[in-house]
Amino acid sequence: QDNRSMKDEL
Amino acid sequence: MNAFRLVGDLCHLAAIVLLLLKIWKSRSVAGLSGKSQILFGLVFVTRYLDLVTNFVSPYNTIMKVFFLSSSIATVYLIYTKFKATYDGNHDTFRMEFLLIPCALLAIVVNHEFSPMEILWTFSIYLEAVAILPQLFMISKTGEAETITSHYLFALGSYRGLYIMNWLYRYYYENNFDVIAVVAGIVQTVLYCDFFYLYITKVLQGKKLQLPA
């Protein structure tokens, strides 16, 4: 589960 | 990008535009908590530090620039241009009661102990509680202007829609960030009381009055 990808959100 | 997140971002955009419209048209910041606006400004500054280093998409960059500039402009309008109409006597929530716990929690509970990650985590925690001074002020004055109610409804809805977005991403993209989701749920829950009043009163054409 990659939580870093939430960094594409505002 | 999914529909929940897009509509959520548009609600967030609408909230900020509504607030600026209210201030500009009424030439007043009456009923607005300057402290909440300062906290929102801090949320954007600490979250968008990667604005120039981490390009995601034109949409992402444009929205970040708008959110940053509009929140700073709002604080400026409240504390300088329309300072005479700022109701400081009712905007008394102690910001340090939010800033210190969020900072401590961000240092202890995060995904990676690095400056950027801790600042991002701090902004996530702070955003969850940044509306408290505004809600506290409304509870003290006992009322809110209708356009301020619309602002709060749009602002509360945006993070509620983000929760749907996180559900969607969990099931379809196997992406999940427990910190963002838990903070987002807390943030949305804080609006529930207001949502109830908004739906039962403001949508019936009445002014938002808290039961005395």
Report on this structure.
The complex is a heterodimer of chains A (10) and B (212). Chain A is low in regular secondary structure and 10 residues long. Chain A has no helix or strand. The termini of chain A are far apart. Chain B is mainly α. Chain B has one domain. Chain B contains nine helices and two strands, in the order H-H-H-H-H-H-E-H-H-H-E. In chain B, strands 1-2 form a two-stranded antiparallel sheet. In chain B, helix 1 runs antiparallel to helix 7. The model of chain B has no long low-confidence stretch (mean pLDDT 96). Chains A and B meet through loops of A and helix 1, helix 3, helix 7 and helix 8 of B.
* C-alpha-based Rg of chain B, rounded: 17 Å
Shape of chain B: globular
What does the average pLDDT of chain A come to?
72
- Give the mean pLDDT of chain B: 96
Radius of gyration of CA atoms of chain A, rounded to a whole number:
6 Å
Biggest sheet statistics of chain A: none
Quaternary organization: heterodimer
Question: How are the SSEs ordered, and which strands pair?
Answer:
The complex is a heterodimer of chains A (10) and B (212).
Chain A: no helix or strand
Chain B: H1 3-26, H2 34-47, H3 58-81, H4 96-108, H5 115-129, H6 132-141, E1 143-144, H7 146-173, H8 178-190, H9 192-200, E2 208-209
Antiparallel strand pairs in B: 1-2
Search tags:
heterodimer; A: about 10 residues; little secondary structure; about 0% strand; rod-shaped; B: about 210 residues; mainly alpha; two-stranded antiparallel ribbon; 9 helices; 2 strands; about 70% helix; globular
Summarize this structure briefly:
The complex is a heterodimer of chains A (10) and B (212). By secondary structure, chain A is largely without helices or strands.
